[in-house]
Amino acid sequence: MSPGARARIAALRTEIAHHDYRYYVLDDPEIPDAEYDRLMQELKALEAAHPELVTPDSPTQRIAGAPSAAFGEVVHEVPMLSLDNAFSDEEVAAFDRRARERLEQAGPLEYWAEPKLDGLAVTAIYRNGRLERAATRGDGFKGEDVTPNVRTIRAFPLRLRGKAPQVLEVRGEVFMPLKSFERLNREAEARSEKTFVNPRNAAAGSLRQLDPRVTAARQLRMYCYGLGTVRGWSPPGRQSEMLEALKAWGLPVCPDSARVRGAEGCLRYFREMGERRAQLAYQIDGVVYKLERLADQERLGFVSRAPRWALAHKFPAEEAMTRVRAIEWQVGRTGAVTPVARLEPVFVGGVTVSNVTLHNFDEVQRKDVRVGDTVVIRRAGDVIPELVRVIPERRAAHAAPVELPKRCPVCHSQVLKPEGEAVARCTGGFSCPAQRQESIRHFASRLAMDIEGLGEKLVAQLVEGGLVRSPADLYGLTAAQLEGLERMGEKSGANLLEAIERSKRTTLARLLYALGIREVGEATALALARHFGDLDALIEAARSDPAQIEQVPDLGPVVAAELHAFFAAPAHRELIERLREAGVSWEKLEPRAAALPLAGRTFVLTGTLPGMTRHEAQEALSALGAKVAGSVSKKTNYLVAGEASGSKLQKARELGIPILDEAGLRSLLGAHRR
Ligand code: IVH
User: Fold this and answer.
1) Would you call 332 exposed, middle or buried from its count of C-beta atoms within 10 A (0-12, 13-18, 19+)?
2) How far, in Å, from the CA of 278 to the mean position of ligand 1?
3) For residue range 63-116, what is the model confidence (pLDDT) as tens digits?
């Protein structure tokens, strides 16, 4: 055997362990993945040539052993406890008060605050620095021996760095990062296999595999947060120092933990994590507060199965189960007939949810939602609640599939769903009160005619009472008519009339947007106004030669067809006439000559902007005539770079192209907007 091979094998193992440490513990990889793979390949090749040099703690031996028939049982020498839960600020304050009383401490206590990772608790024993055994929590006293599986988790060092104690039992959470979870489910879907409901189930399912090769493929991670049996080492005095020591041994700890003071500090941390939650790479279901001083932890001890020195402060559950009472159809401004599930009210994500939109008929069919079904509702952060799935096991035998209504539930006109389109529409147009109501609401909205005080309830009253049938009727309303309405005093009536009067002086862009033409959003309306300068020119083009519309930067045949159809309808032309007669007016612009301020300029967007979506940025730029291109070249005038910008940013720098951040973009947009 060549002495060179032995030395090289040792060097490679040390180097690989070093890169695992940089990657999993310091979160600061030094080398690209491909280089890491190369080191691993070299080690594998050397070990294959010298099998006598293979040791169990070699990184090539993470997957070792054949699938087993069952898991062995492990008795925890120190039981694995659970945590008491708190759901409110008051409970946290009470926990802190009790701790101070018990410790007879007058001033604020220090806590170590950590994310409550949504995975499964695992304990691992290192004897003389080598990973010997790992087990699940089980019932807290006895768990399952999952050593071969835990060995495949690269975040778990097979050997501790530096001088390790005789026995070190570390405890932590094994979890699946969200990216890996999504990938796993995507792959399962592609193979038409069952997907995992959430990352916690995926982590548990992956760890409790009889074949460690399956676990190895699952990209599990781990963060340590506590100790079990320890021999040959006395832990330092603080939770934070204890974790630092684990980190120095090469064990990963969560980087998002923090030291805080008093209940106030705990609550501040809770809110901060609540806000950061959606950006974290892993799923959490709350935070955990632990007394920072280990001596205090010892003095407080345990009650039944939970420590008195720690508390889990949970976020409101993001998913809950409830029952579908009914499925109703709502008619929107453009006649879209949208299914809405009426639910038995359920508290989820911090609010009570009693309705969720099902978006369209295809979605109803895809999810196969039926009246009476038990369903899972999800509301994460401020995201609109959604119906995740039906629980088919709980479906009543007689539950019938939902059918698309043939007639509009409001005006009874025919409902049509064109082949290949997801949306079904009421064909009643303005004769449908629902569409009427929605179009008037849109007409009055802030970005349209901006009639202050004309909200949803008031519009409903006006339409239902027959006072307003078309937006033009708003301009004929009288004080006497308004007084007759519910909750409408003399003063608010006068205010509303004043707001209506004020709205008459507007811009062409606002008016076009207010008309509620399909496909004409705010940015398109602005582009049309700038291009044509006046309404008559636009109407003329739309009616006689829609191709002219396609001359407007970024507008295509779809918008052209919608404008053609809209202005071809006599009812719409009459509406415009009536608005003009009522005194609605706008300043004419020089057609096109007032070429759009950013015409001829090319922008490229990269990365995420903190305060606007890519779509919004794109729309705003195109409305000002800019071209938004996909890749950076010499022709690019500006690069708008958000967070996590990569190669485009680099290329722009190389080419000396000006780079804007969101603030820069906003000020540029602001300078050209009117
Ligand atoms: S400490 C004696 N810290 O929550 C203290 N647990 O509800 C024992 N968990 O079984 C646990 N993140 O699976 C602790 N930062 C964290 C945690 C955490 C998640 C889990 C763990 C435990 C359960 C208790």
Assistant:
1) middle
2) 20
3) 876 777 788 999 999 999 899 999 899 999 999 999 999 999 999 999 999 999
Q: Calculate how far, in angstroms, residue 590's C-alpha sits from the geometric centre of ligand 1.
A: 67
Mean pLDDT of 297-322: 91
Q: What secondary structure does DSSP assign to 114-139, as a single string?
A: EEEESSEEEEEEEETTEEEEEEE-TT
User: How far, in Å, is the centroid of ligand 1 from the Cα of 83?
Assistant: 6
Mean pLDDT for all residues in the chain: 91
Q: pLDDT-derived band of residue 593, with 50, 70 and 90 as boundaries?
A: very low
- The residue annotated as part of the active site, out of 44, 116, 367, 417, is 116
**Closest to 509 (Cα-Cα) out of 491, 490, 487, 534:** 534
**Closest listed residue to residue 224, CA positions, set 285, 157, 170:** 170
- Residue 314's SS3 state is strand
Give the per-residue pLDDT at 113.
Answer: 98
Strands 120-127 and 73-75: unpaired
Q: Which residues' Cβ are closer than 6 Å to ligand 1? A: 81-83, 114, 116-117, 121, 137, 173, 225-226, 288, 307, 310, 312
Which of 19, 40, 44 lies closest to 30, judged by CA?
19
Q: What pLDDT does 595 receive?
A: 62
Beta-strand pair 167-175/284-291: unpaired
Say whether 163 is catalytic.
no
Provide the whole-model pTM.
0.60
| Percentage of the residues of the chain whose pLDDT score is greater than 70 | 98
The full set of domains in the chain, from first to last, is 3-62 (1.10.287.610), 85-314 (3.30.470.30), 318-394 (2.40.50.140), 429-503 (1.10.150.20), 508-586 (1.10.150.20), 596-672 (3.40.50.10190)
Q: Average of pLDDT values for 272-291?
A: 94
Which candidate, 229, 244, 249, places its Cα nearest to that of 292? 244
CA distances, 402 to each of 323, 338, 358, 570, 625 (Å): 15, 13, 12, 37, 46
Q: Show the tokens assigned to 151.
A: 């060995």
Asked whether residue 153 carries a pLDDT value surpassing 90, the answer given is yes
